[in-house]
Write a structure and sequence with these properties.
Elements: E1 8-11, E2 23-27, E3 32-36, E4 44-48, E5 55-58, E6 63-70, E7 79-83, E8 86-89, H1 95-113, H2 138-146
Parallel strand pairs: 1-2
Antiparallel strand pairs: 2-3, 3-4, 5-6, 6-7, 7-8
This protein binds zinc ion (ZN).
């Protein structure tokens, strides 16, 4: 397997079932991106955009995802950043570092989302028959708030 050092991006409404290696599919509508693991293992990596998950930076030509992508649940355990359509590989992380990183993540979510239960961050597996759900935006919440 060859580690990829660059990706291209594609803005899509739905992430296609057959994804191409080296393409990051970005759905603004679903606030999610997906790509095949940059190590070449073929695993699908889904990176939802939320205040405590990933952020997408689009500079008009390239995309960056922040923070890094740590595929600890895959055999490859690859860890890399996607920055300006380049893949920056991280050093190998020990189990302790992975656990510490997960714990930080959990704490961040806890602080951000409590007392409301955290939303599901699993990938939406969209199909064409699905109408996109209205995101629970601040506006949706405000509308509910002002409704008598
Ligand atoms: Zn991989």
């Amino acid at each position: 397997m060859t580690r990829r050092t660059a990706v291209t991006h594609e803005f899509v409404q739905f992430v296609p079932r057959e994804m191409k290696e080296g393409t990051v599919y970005v759905s603004i509508e679903y606030a999610t991106a997906a790509h095949l693991c940059a190590c070449g293992c073929g695993n699908k990596v889904v990176t939802p955009f939320t205040p405590t998950d990933w952020k997408l930076i689009f500079d008009g030509e390239t995309i960056s995802l922040d923070p890094s992508i740590g595929n600890w649940s895959f055999k490859c355990r690859s860890h890399y950043w996607i920055q300006r359509n380049r893949v920056e590989w991280a050093r190998y992380w020990s189990d302790e570092q992975i656990a510490a990183g997960r714990e930080r993540d959990r704490q961040a979510k806890k602080q951000y989302f409590e007392p409301v239960p955290p939303p599901s961050v699993s990938s939406p597996e969209p199909s064409n028959s699905d109408r996109p759900k209205e995101p629970d935006s601040i506006w949706a919440r405000l509308r509910r708030f002002f409704r008598p």
